[in-house]
Design goal:
- By secondary structure, the protein is of the alpha/beta class.
- 52% of the residues lie in helices and 11% in strands.
- Strand 5, helix 5 and strand 6 form a beta-alpha-beta unit.
- Helix 4 packs parallel to helix 5, helix 8 packs parallel to helix 10 and helix 8 crosses helix 13.
- 50% of the residues are buried.
- The mean pLDDT is 96.
């Protein structure tokens, strides 16, 4: 199959490697013309996925028309905040019958929309739009370490086809019909990973992190149910699976970003020091605002937003969480 990947970040690059190894014809687009040309010439991506070599069979270009030409599947591998701009720019080249699979894990800050909702708004036809998520660090996918993910969509026949197309000997794909739940898991787990990283930066131990993840999962589920998601999704790969790997792994961007905040860096300082995008930084504001509107109690997510955007000291945020009124576990 001829597959186009929009985005040459870490995950887009890892998926390009995986699909090329499986025998697909892969073309990858990048927005930065100079850096994309460097990747094409050197066959390396040191900025986003260092240590791997891209085979000559993967076409790499800043020309979206060339990358999308006659493609049968498009993977949208750009950060959530850039999905709208990228798709608007390439919309004339997108064939209406070609499926689009979002790899983004966030919520658009200006609208609060999920990535597939943005795609559906811009190109129409929710039946052709899908979301892929789960515990899947690019560094491990690129090394062909066993990885299991889930793809969600509303067309069961199309889902089965995509499952077959994307699955390889080291990249296992499950399918799910709960698009809302899959995307909200991917977005909100990044906020909880920020909280876990802040705890790491403060020097707290495993007890604190375990509590953050357990209660964070409760918050994720509350929020998801209020938005129309399926409860079971939060106990699957996109939920507890991705939450665990993001909060504990050395590859976790959001955890690492949170650790910088816990060590005393400001939001501006941490952004300057972090070349890779930590989606939770933008998602936390959306989640905190929407939770308030929905009447959903999300003390951890709200605390993260206050630490990043209102100047609340991380130590004080933890104290406020610990001193909340005693209640039954639920």
């Amino acid at each position: 199959m001829k597959i186009a990947i929009l985005g040459n970040g870490g995950f887009g690059t890892a998926m390009a490697l995986t699909l090329a190894r499986a025998g697909h014809a892969v073309a990858m687009w990048g927005h930065d013309a100079i850096y994309t040309a460097q990747i094409a010439a050197s066959r390396r991506n040191p900025r986003y996925l260092d240590g791997v070599v891209l085979p000559d069979g993967i076409r790499i270009s800043n020309d979206a028309t060339a990358v999308l030409d006659r493609c049968q599947l498009v993977l949208v591998a750009v950060p959530t905040q850039h999905v709208r701009g990228v798709i608007l720019a390439v919309a004339p080249q997108l064939v209406p019958t070609v499926p689009l699979v979002s790899l983004a894990k966030g919520l658009e800050q200006s609208t609060g929309k999920r990535p597939t909702a943005i795609l559906t708004e811009l190109v129409g036809g929710e039946q052709r739009v899908f979301a892929l998520s789960g515990p899947s660090h690019a560094e491990e996918i690129a090394r062909e370490l066993p990885t299991t993910v889930v793809i969600a969509g509303r067309d069961e026949v199309a889902l089965q086809g995509l499952q077959t197309t994307l699955q390889t000997k080291a990249f296992r794909v499950y399918r799910n019909r709960d698009v809302i739940g899959i995307e909200l898991c991917g977005a909100v787990k990044n906020v909880m990973a920020l909280a876990a990283g802040i705890a790491d930066g403060l020097g707290y131990g495993d007890n604190a992190k375990a509590a953050i993840l357990t209660r964070g999962l409760v918050e994720m589920q509350r929020y998801g149910l209020a938005c129309g998601a399926d409860k079971q999704t939060f106990f699957g790969l996109a939920g507890v699976g991705d939450l665990a790997v993001t909060a504990f792994s050395r590859h976790g961007r959001n955890r690492a970003f949170g650790e910088r905040i816990g060590r005393g860096e400001t939001l501006a300082q941490a952004l300057l020091a972090s070349p890779k995008v930590a989606e939770g930084v933008w998602t936390c504001q959306v989640v905190a605002a929407q939770a308030k509107q929905l009447g959903v109690e999300m003390p951890i997510a709200t605390a993260v937003a206050r630490v990043l955007y209102e100047g609340l000291a991380p130590q004080l945020a933890v104290r406020e969480l610990m001193e909340r009124d005693p209640k039954a576990e639920a």
